[in-house]
Amino acid sequence: MEPAPGPQEKYHLITRNLQEVLGEDKLMAILKERELKIYWGTATTGKPHVAYFVPMSKIADFLKAGCEVTILFADLHAYLDNMKAPWELLELRTHYYENVIKAMLESIGVPLEKLKFVRGTDYQLSKEYTLDVYRLSSVVTQHDAKKAGAEVVKQVEHPLLSGLLYPGLQALDEEYLKVDAQFGGVDQRKIFTFAEKYLPSLGYTKRIHLMNPMVPGLTGSKMSSSEEDSKIDLLDRKEDVKKKLKKAFCEPGNVENNGVLSFIKHVLFPLKSEFVVLREEKWGGNKTYTAYEVLEKDFAEQVVHPGDLKNSVEVALNKLLDPIREKFNSPELKKLTNAAYPNPSKAKPAEKGSKNSEPEDVVPSRLDIRVGKVISVEKHPDADSLYVEKIDVGEAEPRTVVSGLVQFVPKEQLQDRLVVLLCNLKPQKMRGVESQGMVLCASSVGEPRQVEPLDPPAGCCAGERVYVEGYEGGEPDDELKPKKKVFEKLQADFRVSEDCVAQWKQKNFLTKLGRVSCKSLKGGSIS
């Protein structure tokens, strides 16, 4: 039997891979006297995805350090956050979260008997807690409440009062769960400092706060339940995992905003203390890394290829997901999943014998539109009006795209430019060169014709998803079938607004960083 870790070793286990700790001295003082009491809370909103393995991995660290760990299923918070979980689905979603989080913990070998599981509504509706909410609301300013929730509560044009209550409830949870510390992502920092400021005003102790970095999603931005392409669902089939990883942003040599590398660093390495890059013998064979920094250095120096990295993560990730898939294959949990997350886009089946026996929605989420970076531009060898471009869309290799922009956009204005690329058209040969996408451009209505490529917001990464407002969810088609004319039907309603924003039926084209626009062609069409 291994000897119990000492205070310094416990401190290392508790804080490794964290981005920030508020209250380090207090943490060490407690560890010298007794075990730390800590909680992690999750609002029961969208389906948990593979990024949830990051806090799960830290919970494993906390248990190794001897901590008393509570997991809070924050059902009331889910409702207060702009009603992300409707009241009628709250119980079902909380039940789903309980099952899936426990399955994740079992998958990485965490003993459930050492954990305490609590639902927010078990104590947040009590007389004492409600009175404390009123007491807190009498000392908290509207400005501080809004600022505290800015990174966590969904921001809308006309915010609800419930969003202002959210940070106060999270602060009070620390007192009512009787913990020394709260653990969460660094996006919770403003709520944590809010709690440190206001809990003492009610006569309660200021707590320690431990913060994980935000792990980039597969598109290079934050992994999000509402952005389908940015995350891998815990119940995704193996073929879906392969498809999403294939699309993932993993530029050769680029270690910034690399969701694939981040997953290795924050999940796979802490669990196994090693990572095996699987390669064919002709490329050097398999290589085992026992230090993440060495792997990152090899990737930066292009010793490790993005394709090999993705394939290796796919194998390791499926090992984690297999027991979860197996558990949720039971009729009871299948029924729970469908009830907690009903599919809003499922059309009612047509009557038997009807010509339209396979109705399908023509919606913008079926288009695979991504931010691309133009790596090179050359004139087509056999067509003076065409460019042949190499465009990075976050895949292992750039795509070849042929576009008729020669008479509208000088070559030097395209080089190294960010563009908006439709990626799931069927590849077709244009004067002998196969084009693997379409650069979306604004066109003027009158003569002489003017054309401007659409501009993603500044700061976007190649491969980041572009979506239409209100259609963030949903999987794009693998390939748009030409006979169905899905793009053509949607494109008929593409327009440029009077403030030069790209729109479909007056809904904006967006990335995680803002609106897609063009330089000057107000009221133009988009093709």
UniProtKB/TrEMBL annotation:
Residues 335-363 are annotated as: Disordered. Belongs to the class-I aminoacyl-tRNA synthetase family. Residues 363-467 form the TRNA-binding domain. Keywords: Aminoacyl-tRNA synthetase, ATP-binding, Cytoplasm, Ligase, Nucleotide-binding, Nucleus, Protein biosynthesis, RNA-binding, tRNA-binding. This is Tyrosine--tRNA ligase. One of its GO terms (molecular function) is tyrosine-tRNA ligase activity. It is found in: Cytoplasm; Nucleus. It catalyses: tRNA(Tyr) + L-tyrosine + ATP = L-tyrosyl-tRNA(Tyr) + AMP + diphosphate + H(+). One of its GO terms (cellular component) is nucleus. Pfam families: tRNA-synt_1b, tRNA_bind. It is an enzyme of class 6 (ligase). Its EC number is 6.1.1.1. PROSITE patterns: TRBD.
